[in-house]
Amino acid sequence: MNHSRWKTLRERKLAEGFTEPDDVAEARQQIGLSMALARAVYERRTELGLTQSELAARAGLTQAKISRIEGSDTVPTLPLLAKLAKALDASLNIALDDDDTRVTFTPHETSAA
User: Fold this and answer.
1) Which positions fall inside the HTH cro/C1-type domain (predicted)?
2) How do 101-107 and 90-96 pair as beta strands?
3) For the whole prediction, is pTM greater than 0.90?
């Protein structure tokens, strides 16, 4: 069964009145947040033309740690998120709503001299 069929099956069950157990819903939300952060870090890093090693050096981290963040294998602490935002020369924006999680990095404006 491929992923699109899982989604269809889940949506069909929800439409029929099925409700997920609380622990499953919580795990789904945590995974979604981790994936949104991973995507935002990857997109900003590639936008800057940085390798994982270069970003790690800027942030004072290891390349392996950057890889784990981009692979959704870890959820960083707030101090680590601050390091990432600084290394990516951006502000980190996280919007958490019931069914909508958005994570973005907003580039800092550079003043023209």
Assistant:
1) 41-95
2) antiparallel
3) no
Distances (CA, A) of 61 to 3, 44, 48: 34, 17, 18
Please indicate, yes or no, if residue 23 is contained in any of the structural domains: yes
Angstrom CA distances, 87 to 4, 49, 101, 109, stand at 36, 13, 23, 15
Separation CA 53–CA 75 (nearest Å): 19
pLDDT digits (tens, 9 = 90+) for 65-101: 999 999 999 889 999 999 999 999 999 999 987 777 8
How far apart are the C-alpha atoms of 113 and 91, rounded to whole Å?
Answer: 22
Torsion, Cα of 74, 77, 83, 88 (10° steps): 50
Contact 55, 66 (CB under 8 A): yes
Rounded CA-CA distance 1/76 in Å is 32
CATH classification at residue 35: 1.10.260.40
